[in-house]
Amino acid sequence: MLKSALLSAVEASREQVVQHRRHLHRHPEPSFGETQTGAYIAQTLKKWGVTFSEGWCQSHGAAGIVAKVEGQEPGTRSMALRADMDALPIQEVDRPHASTNPGWMHACGHDAHTACLLGAIEALHATRAHWQGTVHCIFQPGEEILPGGASILVPEGALRTDAPLTGPGKASGSLVEGIVGQHVYPQLDAGTVGFRSGAYMAAADELRIRIVGKGGHAALPHRATDPIVVAAHVISALQTVVSRVCDPTEPSVLTFGKIRGGHARNVIPDEVVLDGTLRTYDEPTAESLRSAIKRIAERTAEAHGATAEVDLQIGYPPVINDPTLTAACRQRAVELLGASQVVELPLRMTGEDFSFYQREVPGCFYRLGTGGEGPGCRSGLHTAQFDIDERALSTGTAMMAYLAATHALT
Domains in the chain, please, with CATH? Predict the structure, then answer.
C-alpha cells in the first residue's frame, strides 16, 4: 500500500520536480551564497504548509533550511534526508536550460539533489496517512568548499529532532536516528542506484605550498634564486610521498592542480604558489603523509637556497557508510526498483562533507544513476558539459521518500 501510494505521488509531481531542477539549474549560486536558492525552497515549503526553519549556516552568509514531514505517530521514530545546494565556478556550455549566472554552473548535480528532496517532501506529505514517524529534511549550503556546510550545521543542531522548529543554535532535542544522502552518478544509467557499505569516499585535505626565492633578470639566473625551478623539484620530490611513505594497501592520492608564479617570460619571480589536494582513508596514514609533505617540501627548497611555507588544511573526513543502515537501504532499493537496478559501487577518492553527519548518527550515502543518451548525460562531474537524464529525478525522488517512509533503520 505504501509503495504504490508513494509511486503514485511521485508520478503526480514528476513534471514539477523537473521544473524545480531546471529553475535551480538556471540560477546557480556559489558555496555559502545560496540565498536565492534558499528563498525558492522556503517559498515552495510554505506553499505546501510544511514546517521548517531558516538561517542555518548564516554565520557564513548562507541560507540553509531544515524542514520536517510528519506521518502517523510522529514521535515514534525519525529519519533525516539531506540535499546540498551550492554550484561550481564553471562556465556552462550553451543549452536551453543553461545557467543564467555567468561563470557558475550546477556541474555536480546539486540542483537535482535539491529537486529530488523537494519532490520527496511533497510525496511524503501527500502519503502521510500511510507511514509512521517524522522525516527530517536538511537543505545544506556549502558542500563544495571548506569548511563544508555540514561541519557547521552539525554543531548548530541540525540533526536534533526539534531543529525544524527552533532554528540554528537553539535545538536541544534528541538526535535523529539516521541520515541518508544521494548523489548523481553519470556512469550509471538513469533508473539505477548504487551502494557501498563501509568506507566509500576519501578524506580530503587542502594543501598550499609557497616557495620563496629571489627574483631577477631571466638572463642572469646566477644572481637570483629561481622559485620556478625549485617548485619543479618540490613537485617531483613529492611524487614519491604516496609510494614511499604510506602502506601500499591503503589508498592515497596527492595531486597538485594549480601553480601560480611569474609575470613575464624574461623575469624570474620572487615566489611560486602550489595548490593541491591530499586524499586518504586512514588517519594515521594521513598524519604520516602530512608530515612527509612538509618535511620534503621544506628541505628540497632549502637545498636550492629557497624556503617553502606549507599550509595544509585538514578537510572532510572519509565517508564511512553504516553497514546496517546501508544493507537496509539496499534492500529497500531492491523492493522499489528491482534487483537489476541496484549495483555495488567501487571505492572512490573523491570527498564529501556528508561524512560530518556520519560522525554523529548512522548514515548511508548512495549514488543515483543519471546517465543517458542526451548531450552531457555521460559527461563527468565538475565539467562544463555535465547534464543529467531527467528521468532520474523520479527515481531519486522515489528513493528518498521510500527510504524515509519505511524508516530503513528498522
Answer: 2-202+318-405 (3.40.630.10), 203-316 (3.30.70.360)
